[in-house]
Structure formats: C-alpha cells, structure tokens
Amino acid sequence: MPAADVSEGATEPPSRVDFPAIYTAEFGYVWSTLRRLGVDGRDLRDLCHDVFVIVFSNLESYDIRRPIRPWLFGIAFRVASDYKRSAHRRREIPVTRDAVTSAPAADELMLRNERQRLVLRALDKLDLDKRAVFVMHDIDGHVMPDIAATLGIPVNTAYSRLRLARTDFAVAVEQLEGGER
Fold first, then answer.
1. Of the four listed, 6, 43, 68, 181, which is most buried by Cβ atoms within 10 Å?
2. Per-residue pLDDT tens for 131-156?
3. 3-class DSSP state of 8
C-alpha cells in the first residue's frame, strides 16, 4: 500500500494496515511529537522505538477509517508521560541539530535555532496535559473532537486546557524573552 494511504489525507481507507508504510510515513511526525512533548534529544530515538513497538503490537485495534496521526499522538503522549514520570530523567534544555539540506545564511540558521529553543523551553513550562492539547491543536492542527477522543477527555475540557495552555505559553515566552535581554 502506498504511504499516502495511512496519512490523514487518504480519500479511501485502506483495507488493511501496513506497518512498514505507517513507519515510513509517520516516523518524522512521531519524532517531532515526542520532542514537542518534552522528550530530551538523547532519548528521542529510544522513545520513538517504544512508540512504534506499541503501534505494531496494537495494529489490530486500530480503526482504519480514522486518521492515523491522532492515534499515534495518543500513543506518543502516553510514552512521553511515562518518560516524564521516570526518576532517571535529567533536566537539560534540548538542543536540536537539524540536517541542513540547503545552506541558509548563518544568521538565519541561528535565529531559527533560537526560536526553536525558545518554543521548546516555553513548552517545558506547561504541564503535560495542557501541553498535549496545545501541541495537537496549535502545532499539529488536529480538530478538538479528535484531540478529546485521543486523550480520553471531554471536548470542553480540551478547549479549557487549550485556553489555559495558550495563556501559560504566552507568559512563558514573555518571561524567557525578558530573561534573555
């Protein structure tokens, strides 16, 4: 099955789920989701692996008529939540090192990296429940009913968490920017 059949834009649901296609099409999404949920860079590879082990183990329970990304986000959210609760987690500010395909100017690259670090540091200030709703809605673009279903919360609770997360995020950005000046 082509990779497009497992993405949100598929016009017809596939007749069966193809794990290699899901892995190929959605690895980057899972990686980014885990990073946005506060997973340190040194642990991303392991936790991505954990997410896809869970995906493979639960493929039979996946409803192929529904979009794959909210389901993947739910799994990634639970993996990140377990990770954050673990006692061995060290507090460090994650630093991203993007592969450069076309060389942007050094100042553009520096500015982009500073913005990414600012966003990740501001996201770190949010508690995980608010952060999950904020990332799914404002960054990944999922609709609120899918978010609520994925996280197992009422839709109104999801809207409330989004409102609070946006406020907390704006305050965190303002504090972080003020502290850097």
1. 6
2. 999 999 999 999 999 999 999 999 99
3. coil
- Cβ contacts of residue 100 below 8 Å, gap of 6+? 109
CB atoms within 10 A of CB 168: 18
Residues 17/6, Cβ–Cβ less than 8 Å:
yes
**CATH of segment(s) 1-86:** 1.10.1740.10
Tell me the whole-structure pTM to 2 decimals: 0.61
pLDDT in tens, 68-109: 999 999 999 999 988 888 745 455 555 555 554 566 677 787
* φ, ψ at 128 (rounded to 5°): -60, -35
Token code pair at residue 103: 């060389």
pLDDT of residue 95: 56
> Looking at the chain, which residues constitute the CATH 1.10.1740.10 domain(s)?
1-86
Q: Kindly report the number of other CB atoms within 10 A of residue 11's CB atom.
A: 6
| Residue carrying the six token digits 């954050």 | 84
Domain with CATH 1.10.10.10 in the chain: 104-181
Query: Which tokens go with 62?
Result: 């996946």
Task: Look at the block and give the residue holding tokens 């061995």.
Answer: 88
